[in-house]
Amino acid sequence: MKVTVENKKGLSKDLKVFVDKETMNSYMDEKYEEIKGTVNLKGFRPGKVPKEILKRQFGKAVFGEVLDKVLKETSTKALEENKIKPAGQPKLDLKTYGEDKDLEYVLSVTELPKVEIKSLENIKFDEYLVKIDDSETDKRIKDIAKNQPNFKEVSANTKAKKGDLVSLDYKATVDGKDFKGSEGKNTQLTLGKDLFLKGFDEQLIGVKKDDEKVVEATLPENFPEKELVNKIAKFNCKILSVKQSEEVKIDDDFAKNLGAKDLKDLKTLISKQINDEYKNSLNQLSKNQILKEIEQIKVDEVPENLVEEEVKILSQGMSEEEAKKNKKNFEKKAKTRIKTGLILNEFGEKNQIKVSEQEIQAEVQKQLRMMPGQEKMVMDFYQKNPSALASLRGTVYEEKILNLIKEKGKANKKEISKEDAEKILKEAHQHDHDHGHGEEKKEAKKKSPTTSAKEKKPVTKKAKSKPAAKKTKKVSKK
User: Fold this and answer.
1) pLDDT (tens digit, 9 = 90+) per residue, 224-276?
2) What is the domain partition of the chain in residue ranges?
3) Domain 151-245, CATH 3.10.50.40 — does that match?
4) Do domains 2-110 and 151-245 have the same CATH topology?
């Protein structure tokens, strides 16, 4: 194989590839040997069919497979030997080819530009640590205690009031007849919450332990027995107990009930929980700062074909007129995002950052936890949309790169209060809103910078050829 680099214009160049006919014939002979043992032709024993007969029967189809294989191998090798990372899929133009002929073709490729990443090791950004006051922790614990059920049974002659927990057995009828599900044992109702049947609770206000009370309520639209919907049911209730809520005592026992070792340990856990509530958002601000710094790094030229692809993504769903109106703005955004992606990718490659299948699955599981009840829908979405899974991989890859940049960079550590954190996040949100970054985030979800700028593998256009006959065994990956 002989490769000549021609027509260099910026990032674009042509690779002229020449493979002599002797090499092509050796590939053909190898293929004929491979299919000889699998072909069954009348008058010949398996494996004994002469090469000339095979040529007449399958010559065109075999040449098509061999040509496809040679084009893949030689184009990949040509790019690797010349250390070219293609931006997008190279175009292949066949000049000379055929049985018992030299192979000559031109590979037109746009190369990814060289980018400088050394400055990333000293990149500056703010890193926030939220200091939680003891009063904030105590307030959160008190709120938790208020929501902890702590009911104590009252004396037999104490009447139930709103907020009390009433336990009862009941037997219900409609027009004097029993129905399916008309009995309930030890049913507990917190009066005033109206969680059973509308208007049921208020009729129990004033009852005492061992009282019997008839309560009437209308059966709702979603009642399982459809013929009873909107009918009035009579409930014969036997009051088993009346319990009143008592203030929860915040002590070591309370803490142990919540899974902590003691009250001191609970305060530590709650303080960390409050901090974590701000941590992710503040971390994202740090990463946004890093991305802004990366945008300032100079890249001499951005591949036009990648810009065109990115503009198409940014203008998805727009009318032709609207897309034309926003073209210049989209081109500017596209160049910025591609440049950022190129730099991140280069950093990722230099530091051998990989994304494992386990990490992808962990990210999917994280999304499942965020959408309870819709797990099947999310799983089906990823199974039916490989491009969505590829985009998810790009997001995880970018996250790992940014985390490593943070580790290597120069963090300006700031300890702030909870109030400061809220103020910083509010201002950042307002800034994004004012500058339309919300729309950019939606666009970014379609394709992350790393996936949009990531170089594509050198897949060449296949030459048109007839498929090999069914009796031949295909070995080249299509």
Assistant:
1) 889 999 999 999 999 999 999 888 889 998 899 888 999 999 999 998 888 88
2) 2-110, 118-133+271-355+387-453, 151-245
3) yes
4) no
* Fold (CATH) for 2-110: Alpha-Beta Plaits (3.30.70)
Reported as a single tens digit per residue, the pLDDT across 45-64 is 666 677 777 787 787 888 99
SS (H, E, C) the chain: CEEEEEEEECCEEEEEEEECHHHHHHHHHHHHHHHHCCCCCCCCCCCCCCHHHHHHHHHHHHHHHHHHHHHHHHHHHHHHHCCCCECCCCEEEEEECCCCCCEEEEEEEEECCCCCCHHHHHCEEEEEEEECCHHHHHHHHHHHHHCCCCEEECCCCCCCCCCCEEEEEEEEEECCECCCCCEEEEEEEECCCCCCCCCCHHHHCCCCCCCEEEEEEECCCCCCCHHHCCCEEEEEEEEEEEEEECCCCCCHHHHHHCCCCCHHHHHHHHHHHHHHHHHHHHHHHHHHHHHHHHHCCCCCCCCHHHHHHHHHHHCCCCCHHHHHHCHHHHHHHHHHHHHHHHHHHHHHHHCCCCCCHHHHHHHHHHHHHHCCCCHHHHHHHHHHCHHHHHHHHHHHHHHHHHHHHHHHCEEEEEEEEHHHHHHHHHHHHHHHHHCCHHHHHHHHHHCCHHHHHCCCCCCCCCCCCCCCCCCCCCCCCC
